[in-house]
Amino acid sequence: MKDLRFSDMGYVKSSGNSVKVDLFEVGSAVLNFEIDTLICVSNKGCLSKSSFNEEYLSSSYPDNILQNIFLAKPIFNRENIAINERGFEQNIGSIKYKVDDRGTYFKDSKKGILIKLKTLK
């Protein structure tokens, strides 16, 4: 995500369709954001989902894409979904999206976007 690059440890908390993400680098909190009706990023303020997508992801993405990724739900109205014994996969053009018991993986190779969430047990 442009201007939201991060690679270390974080926590995702969800309640219903609300998502709160706290990100840490070397044990210190560096960023948090919440997704509900708006997407609020600690150091950037709040944006509508479509405005967030336009600024950081892609204006062609559906409004709930980031929320669905963090909630491990299908994207793009379940387009090209393949259910398997561990979860599901979706391949939509340049997008590869996979959810299983190990975590969530979203990559749009055309737009250079990668979101990987690993499940800690």
Brief rundown of the structure:
12% of the residues lie in helices and 49% in strands. With 121 residues, the chain is mainly beta.
Can you describe what's shown?
This protein has one domain (9-118). The protein contains two helices and ten strands; from the N terminus they run E-E-E-E-E-H-H-E-E-E-E-E. It is mainly beta and 121 residues long. The model has no long low-confidence stretch (mean pLDDT 91). It has helices at residues 49-56, 65-70; strands at 9-15, 18-25, 28-35, 38-41, 45-48, 81-84, 87-92, 95-100, 103-108, 113-118. 12% of the residues lie in helices and 49% in strands. The strands form two sheets. Strands 1-2-3-4-5 form a five-stranded antiparallel β-sheet. A five-stranded antiparallel β-sheet has the order 6-7-8-9-10, with no helix packed on it.
What brief labels describe this structure?
five-stranded antiparallel β-sheet; mainly beta; single chain; 12% helix; 121 residues
Q: Helix content range of the residues, please?
A: 10-25%
Strand order across the largest sheet:
1-2-3-4-5
Our count of domains comes out at 1
What is the overall silhouette?
Answer: globular
Helix and strand run: EEEEEHHEEEEE
Q: Give the number of helices.
A: 2
Please count the beta strands (DSSP E, at least 2 residues each). 10
Structural class from helices and strands?
Answer: mainly beta
Overall radius of gyration: 14 Å
Biggest sheet record? 5 strands, antiparallel
Oligomer: single chain
Mean pLDDT across the residues is: 91
Q: Indicate the proportion of strand residues.
A: over 45%
Q: End-to-end span in angstroms?
A: 27 Å
Stretches where pLDDT is under 50 for at least 5 consecutive residues are none
